[in-house]
Amino acid sequence: MQVRTLCGSLRVGSTDGAHTQARFNRPGASCILPDGTILIADIGNNLLRRMNKSGLVETIAANETRTNIIEPTGLAFVDGHIYVSDSGHNRIKSISIETMKIDKIFGNGKKGFYDGRSVDAMFSKPQGLYANQDGIYVADEGNSAIRMITKDGNVKTIVSGQGMKGPNGICLGNEDEIFITDKLNHCIYQFKDSTLRVIGGICGRCGFQDGFNSLFNSPTSITYANDGALLIVDSGNNCIRRISSDRLGVETIAGPLPTNNNDDDQVNIININNHLIHPDRLTSLQ
């Protein structure tokens, strides 16, 4: 699989512009809007950015995000609204695509673990989001739980504990199953029929190994592919991994950054541009 830079460069900043002229600071989650533009959570700048089909990057909802959102770690779009994990405030916020204003807030801002109405519920460092017509699924990392914001605006817990330490990424499959990356446990879960089981990696063991006895290093994001396979951001290993549709094997499909043997301990800039360094999130093209 070939890695190609769409926008941004090795330089940190917040400058808008075309393709590699744009600057980011820890870009993380992204999602595709109905018009084909790509929405990007610029975590280090506490901003939302978007790239149009021509490759032009611009900052959106700047007044809303700069003053109201700290560390936007998750993004999802459904029914005309952008949902953002406001990790620094322990909240999920909704931004109307028409007005680019925050119109709904879920969580009271206090760090905690409580289900209920949007104004009463509590989260702890919410991370990845997944949206469908049933609601918004939240990887609530600090509470080691998967939560859900229902259509009526209430928050409920889908699964908590059961060995999870740091659920960070989340997606749904085609058979009422939820897939979860556990960043702190270095493994991948499937949650189905009220049962949580490991389908990738060995819980609590960090490493890099393909095959049936796979190992991961701080996986942060997951998405469900058209063929039923799972694509995972293995952040600590600087690569993208794939779990086969039969869940029997793991392979590396992009990265990792090659080991450098130069005496000056520097990596050639050409190698950096063709590989990944601490990738964070994946965007589904479905």
UniProtKB/TrEMBL annotation:
Query: What are the entry keywords?
Result: Repeat
Q: Which InterPro entries match?
A: 6-blade_b-propeller_TolB-like (IPR011042), NHL_repeat (IPR001258)
Q: Give yes or no: UniProt keyword Repeat.
A: yes
Name of the protein in question: Putative NHL repeat protein
